[in-house]
């Protein structure tokens, strides 16, 4: 692929990302900033983060195909890479049926959207596809640089690599709480995955494929929460992220949680601690 993501990145909702935070993430040694929360087709936030930094990559995680027209998205892509070549990865995905009033065939919609990006000159190597199940995972490997799965565990990375084969990108997201207080971490983790994720059919289906049970999902079992939201000291969390790499991922992006209403400095301190555990900087 044309864009070098590095081994580790930070995933954060678009509304929480600022140029100042981007510069700190870059300074700490993370390779990529992932913009979450379905950023709009104008990609203005991505451009502002790239303008504020020098070398960190910015990726969308993900542009929602139902909400962002391919033509406008492609125009924004070309504007950005003209200013920041080699530093932007366009992550796209289909979203979820629960979030759309008109939800046509997701597979056909993905293919059509990628056709439109082809026609608009967005290179295969500069785009990635959100993929969970085998069918879409194969499309990610065939028609984009690779897959950017969300809410997964290392066992999924192992299965995804078998489907993708060698070469295509595999860049999963994983949620983390840098805290040795297991009860606090589980409480925080449950509050962040319960809604909407455990209520969405695509994620439920994938968790069942991975080996969790309906009971795990419905009761938000400790086993499930501990798998989906890593916790412990920075070294323990880093080892959990590295398990994705050992299972076949090329890059893993951490979504770092702190308590609701916690000061910004607490979040930044968690980023610094995790960077130390990962050996960055």
UniProtKB/TrEMBL annotation:
UniProt-recorded Gene Ontology molecular function terms: oxidoreductase activity, acting on paired donors, with incorporation or reduction of molecular oxygen
Assigned GO CC terms: cytosol
InterPro entries per the UniProt record, alphabetical: Bact_Lucif_Oxidored (IPR050766), Lucif-like_OxRdatse_MSMEG_4141 (IPR019922), Luciferase-like_sf (IPR036661)
Domain of life where this protein originates: Bacteria
Protein name: LLM class F420-dependent oxidoreductase
Organism, as annotated: Pseudonocardia halophobica
Phylogenetic lineage: Bacteria, Bacillati, Actinomycetota, Actinomycetes, Pseudonocardiales
